[in-house]
């Protein structure tokens, strides 16, 4: 494990705040702009870990009849005809 101590400045970003992570750190962790990370706050420490992307097999395994079934509202919306100047 490679341990590195860095000082980063918390910067204002819109209504929130952010840290600028050096490119070399992103590359070391296999991250890029837009990557998703897990953040944990424990005992006054902020821990940020890369969140691995699920594989296709993992995503498909999460699809069950219960969580992919269409609701009555979905069925009504899908069976509605055009209401304006849509081109079908």
Automatic annotation (TrEMBL):
A Pfam family: MazE_antitoxin
Domain SpoVT-AbrB: 11-56
Molecular function in Gene Ontology: DNA binding; toxin sequestering activity
Official protein name in the record: AbrB family transcriptional regulator
Species the sequence originates in: Alcanivorax profundi
């Amino acid at each position: 494990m490679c341990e590195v101590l860095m000082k980063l400045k918390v910067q204002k970003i819109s209504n929130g705040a952010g840290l600028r992570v050096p490119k070399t750190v992103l590359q070391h962790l296999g991250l890029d702009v837009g990557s998703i990370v897990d953040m944990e706050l424990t005992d006054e420490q902020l821990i940020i870990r890369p969140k691995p992307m699920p594989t296709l097999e993992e995503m498909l395994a999460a699809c069950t009849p219960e969580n992919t079934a269409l609701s009555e509202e979905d069925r009504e919306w899908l069976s509605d005809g055009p209401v304006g100047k849509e081109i079908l």
